[in-house]
Amino acid sequence: MLYSCKLKSVCNLPVIYNKKINTTGTSNTDVPLAVPGMYQLDITLRRGQSLAARDRGGTSDPYVKFKIGGKEVFRSKIIHKSLNPVWEEKACLLVEHLKEPLYIKVFDYDFGLQDDFMGSAFLDLTQLELNRPTDVTVTLKDPHYPDHDLGIILLSVVLTPKEGEHRDVTMLMRKSWKRSSKFQTQSLRLSDIHRKPHLWRGIVSITLIEGRDLKAMDSNGLSDPYVKFRLGHQKYKSKIMPKTLNPQWREQFDFHLYEERGGIIDITAWDKDAGKRDDFIGRCQIDLSALSREQTHKLELQLEEGEGHLVLLVTLTASATVSISDLSINSLEDPKEREEILKRYSPLRIFHNLKDVGFLQVKVIRAEGLMAADVTGKSDPFCVVELNNDRLLTHTVYKNLNPEWNKVFTFNIKDIHSVLEVTVYDEDRDRSADFLGKVAIPLLSIQNGEQKAYVLKNKQLTGPTKGVIYLEIDVIFNAVKASLRTLIPKEQKYIEEENRLSKQLLLRNFIRMKRCVMVLVNAAYYINSCFDWDSPARSLAAFVLFLFVVWNFELYMIPMVLLLLLTWNYFLIISGKDNRQRDTVVEDMLEDEEEEDDKDDKDSEKKGFINKIYAIQEVCISVQNILDEVASFGERIKNTFNWTIPFLSWLAIVALCAFTVILYFIPLRYIVLVWGINKFTKKLRSPYAIDNNELLDFLSRVPSDVQVVQYQELKPDPSHSPCKRKKNNLG
Fold first, then answer.
1. Could you report the per-residue pLDDT of 652-661, keeping only the tens digit for each?
2. What is the pLDDT of residue 606?
3. CATH of domain 335-378+401-480
4. SS3 of residue 367 by DSSP
């Protein structure tokens, strides 16, 4: 047995001499039994050399695990984008039996995904000399591919015997360990280290303006450049600018600043190549600690290991917009704090900080009937609460299918059309956390102060999984600010799952687009039938309407007709003649897609066929995405007029009324003149302004039919009703 004394205290031990030690990829089972007793093993993890590349960029993000007797006792920090990482970290371990070797495993870190295996080795502790520093070189191997060269790890180790009072102390530690279901440092890492950094202290606002004189990577003397940004776990990828060495991106995004002293933003430029690995153009960094706060900095960064410059605008803003507290500490239950929050978002403060739209408080109370993810028939659940790029975690409740968290999360709302995502995971010691269930709740659908039992859904949000979660949510926002923010681009998520090829998804998107196109085709057939006099009465009515409209047509009638259509649908809804139909076709296809995904995953493990033909895959994914965009565009227009989101439909009515009045009273030439002057002078007035289309930004907030199905609440089992539960407790 062994126990960890101290983790990650950096220490430099002198190199005494090199010694050859058995470090093959398989354990030595012929080692004689060591004399029983306690030993202290001091290990300095120095560096790695020539490690395996696991990322598409030809690098890896390696970290190292030490295990003895099947238990993880140390995990190093992650070194990003390096095949020759330098750690210089020290671990102090207490070992009871030297017969069990030290198992060294190296992984490539992938945020939100399963980490990639990079090799392993065993260190035979019986071959170490006592009280003598030893430099050890271990050769990494993969048991499945023993001939592959996976690099080496350099260590410095010292083995020291411990006697007397040390043995008594470790026996106490041993007892406490046996009472724990998980290794204690692992629990500390997930509950404290991972959770605390998610309380961010500021915002780094970045505007990627342009690139200048980038390196030509294609045979035509040009490139198709895009840029990747990384700050800790946060990532952003710009759009691809085809065939240029001087791209104009004009993209704006925000990172969260978790450390008061700042941080380093890693920036890499790439050339997009269809059908093969993207070419590396260059890299640079931004040291945020060198930038002053509350001030916009224009940076021209020289690309290292390449050619050219990147031009950026960077602004650091202090903030404290997210928090975690216990249920007893509740902002909205304190009358003074509630009054202060209501005052901050009152109609009188419309133009004060337009980015601060509202306040969200989420009480994560408990979950019931969760899926058993461990072999013991239990789970170790914790909960992740996400609002756009704000991501907070609860503590882990071990060995429990009915956990109680009783935590309160608060967020500032930047977009009232955001969707709150609450996901329950099972903590796993040696692997990525297991998914247990998820719910997605649009902020505009929340009923304030109501404790509700939400049925957990699968990853695709298409059907139920096991368990329910009890949440109580409050939203306070300024409607005018929310309306104005609707007309600017949506906030991009830092990390989104990459699109992958799916036959079912491709078919679903094709059918969705076909249905949108068929609406136009049927309308054309209907109009053509009027010309053909298939129905004389209908053709006569259409002819009279045509003469009347053309003779009296004015431009203001276009928004007025759309306004009448919205009003007509509204009266149909309030009169009970709701013409909105839940799209069962989309629901059925989403369920089929989930089954197909499982099947595809199993097939890919056996064949890996799609991964071998990158060019065809990328073309198919592009077609799949285009079909999705076209179908979603048509569905968003339909759902605007169908009052799927009343807030947006009312906003459309206000805008159409304004356009009708403007077009009625102001001649068209004046409107075009103002529009043209604004367009021509925009770059002169604001050289780094980011162009946007207000109409498309508005439609991006309207959910497509697929999203309507995903956000649809499932009816919980009546036995999970909070009221019934309270009665049962009283009984």
1. 999 999 999 9
2. 41
3. 2.60.40.150
4. strand
